[in-house]
Amino acid sequence: MPHTFLGLDELAAQLGRDKRELEKLVTRGRIPGHRVDGAWRFHPAEIRQWLEQEIRGYSTAELAAVEESQRHDAADGGSPLAAVFHRETVQVPLEARTRPAVLEALLEVAGRTWQIWEPAALLSAILERETVMSTGFENGVAIPHPRNPLPSALGASIVAYGRTLSGIPFGAPKRALTDIFFIVLCRDSKTHLSALARLGRLLQVPNFLDELRAASDSKTSYDVIRTADARLDSQ
Q: All domains of the chain, ordered by start, with CATH?
């Protein structure tokens, strides 16, 4: 068994959840696991993809627990967005009318950091992820990202934001249109999952989406996001 697989104790520690709870879930087929020599083993990539889908329905408290469990040892306890989201990685309005055009435009916005080394590889990976399952929500938000971290394509992890002037088809449930986009490009799984959890918490902040849609330019949009993000740490 490759050393990349996790045991039940390691998984519990990584997710910040009770070992007995996880054992019940994997026994019932709720968590992807492999029974080897009488013990459960878990592949990090499978767990990351499972957790990505699970957190779509998590409460604010559950998202906060995921965020904390994925925090890097060197982190200072602040927002996981602080180091990866910048004023220059915001574009409002975002000039795009199709899903490929949105992704290309967001990659260009993220590229303002000069940390995008292989944009074609990132675009291909994100489109592949969207083909498997759209990252669009019914509330008009999408959080496109590759299925797996691509450290060779990035100099640093980046989150970029854009809002189109009108909603476009992006594969959301019930054919809902999408106008708010956060693209998540990370070099490692911990940063990836903590950023997704943080964004999930932001989307549950009352009036947050209304304020984003009312923001007419990039600066105002950035301020709305940073203000809401800072408030999460004060709660």
A: 8-42 (no CATH), 85-234 (3.40.930.10)
